[in-house]
Amino acid sequence: MPGQIVALGGGAQPLRLGPALEEYLMRLTGRDCPRVCYLPTASGDSDANIVRFYQHFRQPRCQPSHLPLFRREGDDLRPRLLEQDMILVSGGNTANQLAIWRLHGVDLILREAWEAGILLCGGSAGSLCWYECGVTDSFGLQLAPLHDGLGFLPGSHCPHYDAEVLRRPAYRRYVGEGVLPGGIAIDNAAGVRYAGTEVVEVVSAREGAQAYRVEREAGGGLREEPLVARRL
């Protein structure tokens, strides 16, 4: 059976996740010192973001590593990813990230990792990538639909639901007009945990941060249902 995915609404980089969410993710691995691999593809393998990752995910709390693709190291990516307990995906440009992953075969390895029970997680582009589709700023200043996510999780997704003023109206419009199927929207500092493709828990690291199920109704209306969140 596929393992766990945690989609985080906010925190484009590990620095912004905060200690509560970071500790929550590491506990989910079930390891005392989990192997954590950072995929910084969406940020263009930003050196600054890689440094921040190692500042926040370091020994003895975990065994950190990162996998660059713009300056690719080594020929076989598969063993490097499949030996991890957790794969953390950065924020940034989701469309570019997906294209580069597919060129290098990382999309197929990530599915194999998921099916092997390795925890997959991330915020912003690191959450949108797991769904079928969603709302992105990958194509310019205007928010636009993205239709070619990895599709591990069903439906659409919108991160940063409470943090960026245009996110909520854009997502509601696209779902209401049928441009995107219904799905899950997540505030910054909140996360949704999946076991396989089923939502099993919503967590929040900030008062008021939560997630929502957004669906188009048969008569053309829109239903936005808040999901009960557990405060970390």
SSE blueprint:
Elements: E1 4-8, H1 19-28, E2 35-39, H2 47-56, E3 63-66, H3 78-82, E4 86-89, H4 94-104, H5 106-115, E5 119-123, H6 125-128, E6 131-136, E7 144-146, E8 153-158, H7 167-176, E9 183-186, E10 190-195, E11 198-204, E12 211-216, E13 222-227, E14 230-231
Parallel strand pairs: 1-5, 2-3, 2-4, 4-5, 6-8, 8-9, 11-14
Antiparallel strand pairs: 1-10, 6-7, 9-12, 10-11, 12-13
Which spans of ≥5 residues are poorly predicted at pLDDT below 50?
Answer: none
Estimate what percentage of residues fall within beta strands: 25-35%
Largest sheet: 8 strands, mixed
**Any idea what the shape is?**
globular
Q: Strands of the biggest beta sheet: in what spatial order?
A: 3-2-4-5-1-10-11-14
The number of domains: 1
Q: Termini separation (Å)?
A: 27 Å
**CATH homologous superfamily, by name?**
Class I glutamine amidotransferase (GATase) domain
CATH topology: Rossmann fold
Per DSSP, the total helix count is: 7
Q: What is the tally of beta strands?
A: 14
CATH C-level class: Alpha Beta
Structural class by helix and strand composition: alpha/beta
What series of H and E elements makes up the topology?
EHEHEHEHHEHEEEHEEEEEE
**Helix proportion of residues, in percent?**
25-40%
Q: What is the CA-atom radius of gyration, in angstroms?
A: 17 Å
| CATH architecture tag | 3-Layer(aba) Sandwich
